[in-house]
Amino acid sequence: MSHTLPIDSLKDTFFSLLESQHLVVEAETGSGKSIRLPVWAAEKGRVLVIEPRRVACTSLAEYVAELSGEKLGHGVGYSIRFDNHFEENSRIVFVTPGVALRWLSEDQLTSFDTVIIDEFHERRWDTDLLLALLKKLNKHRLVATSATMDGLRLADYLGAHRLQAEGRNFNVEVVHVASDSRNMPDIRGIENKVRQVIADNYQQHEDILIFLPGRKEIAQCQSQLKQLFDEQITLGLIDVIPLHASVTDNERRRALTESDKQRIILATNVAETSLTIPGVTLIVDTGLERRTHQRNGRTVLGLHAISRASAEQRKGRAGRVSEGSCIRLYGKAAPLELLTPPELHREELVEPMLAAACCGYQFEELEFIDALPSQTVEQAKEKLKQMAAIDGNGQVTEHGKRLYPLPIDTLFAHLITVMPDKACREAMVDLSAALSTPQKIWQLPSGEEKREQLAKWQPVACDVMTLIKLLREPTPEFLNVDINVLKEARQLADQIREALELPKLEVATSVKREPWLQAVMKAMPELVFVRRERRRQALGNGYCEVSIGRDSRFADDAEAAIVFDQFSLPGKGVKQNLTLATCMSPISFEQMLSLEMGEDQIGDSQVNEEGCQVEVQRVYAGRVIQTRWQQPEGEAGRQALVTMIMEGAVLEGLAEKITADVHQWNLYLALGRYQTDVCTRADEPVDATVWVAEQLDALGVESAEDLELFTIDDFEFDGIPTWEREDFDQQFPYQVVLTDLTMKIEYHIARKLVVAVHASGNRKQDPKRWELPCWQGWKVQYRKASRTIDVR
């Protein structure tokens, strides 16, 4: 390590302070902090270095080992999912946060003296949680490094000393390519935009780094650039290289090592920090990233515009070795967020809470650098209780301990463990592995011939069975499959199978689709969605709505589905998102009904030769999934009987009689006629429907058969005293009947206004004042349809 790096100026201070206190080291990427600090700290004991990304983890371990003149895996090693290169006495071990959390849950990292959390400014949930746990544990020297985060606030949180080092930064010219200064980053036609920018600028630059949101866009741009530079690539003048979490070792080394070729590197956020890519003088920034966020209590991955802090990080990659340029494919005044929100603020907290519990701590007793949203904390607690992963006191259960080590989403881990038999468990393992890879394993063929071949290979139009078949069987030639992603999914499936003592993938147990899906529906009913009757592309579960993904094989005649995976895209509005169902399995209404999903609602009623019948609709998420006719029974039946009485379908004449009695009673009260000493009913208005329901309850009527035992005379309303009623009705009639004209009467007491409303009759002339009751002192009007006149 003879060459000097900007971080070297802090060496003496770092040494003197590390013995006695925690440290926060602020330094730009390229300053050398990720390779120097572990080596310095190792002089005072064993060091665990936590790197947020797998590519950085393996690359830094290789580089530090090389600089130390050692073979990788001895003095310096690493551990990531599927890959371990270290020994028990390795003095420096680079790990991803997931590995660090599992080790912490096993032995509280007792074999390490110093823990370095690199690139803390990325604010991943696992690094935030690790720092909170280690702070609480208080058994290690802690070093947190950050490029852009507020180091003073982090130092205050840890009670740490703050060190700052300058990076090697040259001037970077920024150019915005947008039709309007406020244009936000846009995914549409991104590969064509990138191709044009590179074609216009590659000759003026050395190596070029292009930031893209994901592997799909990297593959699209890679294809475009290979067409553009076909001749130069053949001649060995240009190298187009992808850089993301799943690249091969060869691609990673080509991206991170200087070359005599001009390199065009297509990268995700993995190149934003941690890794120094030498020779880059041009950055092309699409302004986009894939980031998790909360949607209806669940974490989903969606496309987002980056923050201003990320934009500055990306720009700075071009100023490491000389002056450079940064071309941004969005407007100069685009309203970007200032900082990317911490993952703990934008994701559900089920996994972090379970991780904390497995490490022996309740989430609420940990102190985080930013206070957590209380609602999200409570939602996570309820979900983990429902899964039986934690008990009422927040302590981890044996079931929770089984869930936690599985390297997949907690929801999938829970589904695996609650499956009723080995075949269902294996199917759930393989599906979980397929859905836990960062990119899609396969894409739906576009040609008719290939789609027919797919239908023969997998007859059921089901994304789930297709994925499981892809993991378990040889890959068919007609399908567009990403071999690297499929390999990763198979590795993960075998890892989980081994942990759960299940057969290996090549001897997987055959599963019966319907019983398996029935078990999933029973365990997680919120995954069940029904199709909208009119907007056929949309499905709902009563809490949220999804649209059918373009690559889903969901059939046109399928009406319901289990949605295992979702993906969100930014909509037209600032806060609108379009959520796509990207992995669906069709199910039938009959399967839903067998699990008693939905709620009964009473519809129409009728009387036929079988007696009283009511229509009962089973409704799930606003969709009727079953209609049946039955005799009224129970509470719902009693409500149906009330409806039938009030509609005149049974006990003919009762509804009209009771409606008139109640109307007159309420008018009697409103006119101030109530007398405490003569009225037997309380001085309160009455609702006719409620009164009928109360009478049925008092009479013990529960079915239509019970109702047949009663007549109208059994329903007597004790309102206006009988000796007053006739006179009251003459003075304030409920209705007035003339030749060929019947009118309902409305009384507007505050205005001393009577309105006679046409009810029936063929009379063409309006009523005359002398034809109507006296109503002395009241103004009288007549209303027919929308026409109202004064009666004089």
UniProtKB/TrEMBL annotation:
UniProt keyword terms in alphabetical order: ATP-binding, Helicase, Hydrolase, Nucleotide-binding
Molecular function terms, GO-annotated: ATP binding; helicase activity; hydrolase activity; nucleic acid binding
Source species: Photobacterium marinum
Coiled coil: none
Annotated Helicase C-terminal domain residues: 193-367
InterPro entries: DEAD/DEAH_box_helicase_dom, Helicase-assoc_dom, Helicase_ATP-bd, Helicase_C-like, P-loop_NTPase
Alphabetized CDD domains for the sequence: DEXHc_RHA-like, SF2_C_RHA
Superkingdom, natural source: Bacteria
One Pfam family here: Helicase_C
Domain Helicase ATP-binding: 14-167
Gene3D superfamilies on file: 1.20.120.1080, P-loop containing nucleotide triphosphate hydrolases
PROSITE patterns tied to this protein: HELICASE_ATP_BIND_1, HELICASE_CTER
Name of the protein this chain belongs to: HrpA-like helicase
